[in-house]
Design a protein that fits this description.
Layout: H1 2-13, H2 20-43, H3 48-65, H4 71-84, H5 90-141, E1 161-166, E2 169-175, H6 188-207, H7 220-244, H8 257-270, H9 272-287, H10 295-302, H11 318-327, H12 335-347
Antiparallel strand pairs: 1-2
Helix pairs in contact: 1-2, 2-5, 3-4, 3-5, 4-5, 5-6, 5-7, 6-7, 6-8, 7-8, 7-9
Amino acid sequence: MEEHLERAHSAADEDFGWRRPWSGSIAREGVWSNLRGADVLLLRLVPDAEAVGRASEVMALVERHLDRNDPRRVRLAQRIRYIVSGRLTPEDRELLARSLDSAYGNLDAELARVRSLRNMLWTATVLVFIGVAGLALYGSLAPRSLSLCFAPKASAGDPNQMHVVCPSAEYHDLTANTVPSDLARSQDILTVEIAGLLGAALTVIASLRRIRGTSAPYMLPLASAALKIPTGALSAFLGVLLIRGAFVPGLSDLDSRAQVLAWAAVFGAAQHLVTRLVDDRAQMTLSEVGGPPGATAHQGNAAIRQDDGPPGDRPNGQPAAMERSMTGAPDVPDGNADRSSAEETTVT
């Protein structure tokens, strides 16, 4: 126990500096893991009265973090009534310690999965943001190579003239042989990405209604929401580029700069069709951290027969009937049951 506490103290006092966003969470998990390890060892040493007092707490942790078919959970559910009544045996104390250790181990694994998913989401956010920034920089240096300009129609006054629409400017009454890419400006891609950011921001606000609070030490919903912002900018650029390439039928020619920006905002909001899968996965991961057991688990626990100790200590009645059903012994006839059966026959 002293060794566990020393490790927890060392991890809590360690200064990671600039590495804290990555290493600090691991150290925090190390603190709690060592404290839980000391708690398991302490349960083996405390007096019987204190162990009995903690039995219900241990059972609650086991139900939250162990599968309902786990042998330790099943056995502890069978013995819990006998333990809380004060008739604690050395085998029961060992069962409590092992069950608590397994529950703490599963809790540590659940928190590690949350941390891993959070790290992956933040890493993906940074990578997508770097890609979006790289596109904007490349567009400013070579605007003609990724032109987002459209030539929707000829001028109404002169068929030999045309209009050119770009994300950041519109050109009217140009000669018919004008190449739209020659009029691309360095801020075109950045303008489209900003429109996509605005569209993605709306989906972030809309997704807040589905976010639930969590007691987990990691801000997983925030990491999931942050991924939408650069993804919206990227999807806006790709969507306008697809329209520019006549990939979408009927949308090959946008008539005005406002239409270009409007479609960029729409494609920025459309990223939610992909990132919502990430949101669902994040919520599922959070629900696995100490979530209350479902109805199926409750039914399974209700079906577990309670073990009330040695046969000599059990009163006649339901516990004895449970023992007979477990051992396969025949039931003892009951006069009340015979009378109830006779009454049912008469009614029939």
